[in-house]
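ok new one. same drill as before - structure tokens go in, u give me an amino acid for every spot. 127 of them this time. try not to just spam alanines like last time pls lmao
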């Protein structure tokens, strides 16, 4: 079975590949349809981080430098930041995977980020 994408097709078309008729074990049917075209939708969270990748990269590089240079000296602050980041990331992934629709507006990501930072600091403080 071979799938061929034709975005403007109104109905699906099936055809037998003429070159495969000679061998009875490898006959090939070709389906040409718009349903054969790949469909992939990425969620709002993916688009948000793809758009603001530069800002988040700078923040993560600065945090990485802090962890590298001062992380052992200021153990409690390091654990607070690590717990906060872990909780924030996990809560955002769970919210966008299970609760929010796929086409949620961008401000929902900002609100979820800000709303998850508070409980994240609480979890980081307990660690």
């Amino acid at each position: 079975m071979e799938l061929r994408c034709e975005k403007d097709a109104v109905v699906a078309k099936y055809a037998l590949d003429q070159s495969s008729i000679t061998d009875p074990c490898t006959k090939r049917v070709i389906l040409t349809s718009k349903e054969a075209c790949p469909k992939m939708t990425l969620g709002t969270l993916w688009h948000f981080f793809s758009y603001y990748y530069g800002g988040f990269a700078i923040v993560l590089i600065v945090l990485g430098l802090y962890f590298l240079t001062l992380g052992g000296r200021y153990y409690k602050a390091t654990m607070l930041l690590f717990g906060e980041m872990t909780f924030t990331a996990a809560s955002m992934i769970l919210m966008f995977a299970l609760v929010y629709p796929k086409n949620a507006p961008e401000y929902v990501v900002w609100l979820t980020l800000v709303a998850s930072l508070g409980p994240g600091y609480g979890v980081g403080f307990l660690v």
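The two ends are 55 Å apart (CA to CA). and btw The chain has two domains: 2-36, 44-126.
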